[in-house]
Amino acid sequence: MLLAAIDIGTNSIHMIIVRIAADGSFEVVGREKDMVRLGAGGLEGRALTAGAMQAALQTLSRFKRLAESRGVDDIVAAATSAVREARNGGDLLRSIQDETGVRAQVITGTAEARLIHRAAVHGIDLGNAPAIVVDIGGGSTEVTLGSATGAQQARSFRLGVIRLTERFIKDDPPSAGDHRRLLRHIRGELGDYLKGLAKSGYGRVIGTSGTILSLGSLALGASPPGTGMGLHHRRVGAKALKRLRAELAGLPLERRLQLPGLDPRRADLIVAGSLLLGVILDQLGATELTLCEMSLREALVLDFIRRNRLHIERVDRFPDIRRRSVVELAQRCFVLTDHTQQVARLALELFDQTRGEHGLDERAREWLEMASLLHDTGEHISYEKHHRHSYYLIKNGDLRGFEPEEVEVIALVARYHRRAKPKKDHPGFGPLPRSLRRAVRWLSAMLRVAEALDRSRGQLVRDIQVDRDAAGWVVRLDSRADVELEIWGSQRNATALSELLGAPLRFERLRRSARVPPVQSPTQEGIQ
């Protein structure tokens, strides 16, 4: 089914359209956003202004038409700080329903915090440690502490960027007095709660929302040329954010409007946002912030799935969000087949039996397995140049839980499973650090051979045995039938791996008397 989820925020109204699979997974197929400043002049119990309400109605009417044009089956909508505080918030909700047919619900601050936490842990791999999630909105800021299963502590504070700017920022650029009053207020509101969280032993601090993503983007600067990396799952140091905070504090609005990468519509609010985020990180004692592009709108989708009892079978089968997102992409592209699982199994055998030569770690082993499972995704577009199509689909396939550079490595390994070998002038490959370029070379070389070892796509090779002899390296195949085609194909595709191993590489069928027992790989255990 298709679902539209709308977040009616104090600063912006967001909509995503998602396709929900029968197993409860979803993918985003459309995004819309409009910064209407619904809460401008209408916080602290005051009425929403007529202009702001009209702008919100126009935006929601347009979103409703867009959703209907996409054929959505249902729409869920939630309103936050501006509507829940305003004395005429109920009037707006009635007007929305009368004019658009959308039934929006006001959610409490605590409910908003818990929902945002759910979205963040859906998109960021926490490992085994709890995490703190921070969302800075126009009217409120939500701070939670919890694990991948949910928030154990959740609070919402009336500390949004519109609220703080309207109340405390009087001069341009903000005066020292503006800063003192603003910081004193923030510390007074957050102090005790953040001090308690700082003692919790959290693993990382995750930041969501447009304000935090804007600050993270400014602090990181532009992505390296050719990488095309987004902000999701990227880490930004607290020191870099502190330097940015000092820079923003001294710039007048006219200069902030010219900052590359900053949406001009946020320029008047970004100073308050940077000071608020700075206090939070300082009092938590955090050294870095992990950026997350998932927030309340994705949480509304997850909540819809939960409330409608659409049990997510894939979560039960693949509790690791990294593996789960890879499997989801493979299934969407119809490539989670016996062939790709066989290739993954054989690639891991090559990795394991040549560890002494490549010296790569377990993280690289996982990249190889994921790239092997996804190497044929490009066939979903066309077979011709499908290795390049695979690169594009993996890069844009919503692989949750992976760092941006990890996604780049996986995509490149799949891209180089056939045809050209990696070159420094190739987009994506050249900008990578030297260690990751080395990993891509080794992993793609192994994938080339593993792919050829199932050239007939009949899964004839039961196991392989890699040895070194006087003539070089030999890969002996334990098979259940004739594997002449596999040997021929592997020999043709062994050049890259042979060069890395520093000696010739040949393939031969293992004699029946010398067969070794087959090894079941993690790929077989986790997917079949």
Number of strands: 14
The structure class reads alpha/beta
Low-pLDDT segments, ≥5 res: 223-228
- Note the gap between the termini: 26 Å
Strand order of the largest sheet: 8-7-6-9-11-10
The tally of helices reads 22
Q: How much strand content do the residues show?
A: 15-25%
Mean pLDDT, as a whole number?
A: 90
Largest sheet: 6 strands, mixed
The geometry reads as elongated
Q: Nutshell version of this structure?
A:
The chain has 528 residues and is an alpha/beta fold.
Write the layout of secondary structure elements.
Layout: E1 2-8, E2 13-20, E3 26-34, H1 50-69, E4 74-79, H2 81-85, H3 89-100, E5 104-106, H4 109-123, E6 131-136, E7 141-147, E8 150-157, H5 161-168, H6 176-198, E9 204-208, H7 210-220, E10 235-237, H8 238-249, H9 253-256, H10 270-284, E11 288-291, H11 296-307, H12 313-317, H13 321-332, H14 338-353, H15 355-358, H16 362-374, H17 386-395, H18 404-415, H19 434-452, E12 461-469, E13 472-479, H20 484-492, H21 495-501, E14 505-509, H22 522-527
Parallel strand pairs: 1-4, 4-5, 6-9, 9-11, 13-14
Antiparallel strand pairs: 1-2, 2-3, 6-7, 7-8, 10-11, 12-13
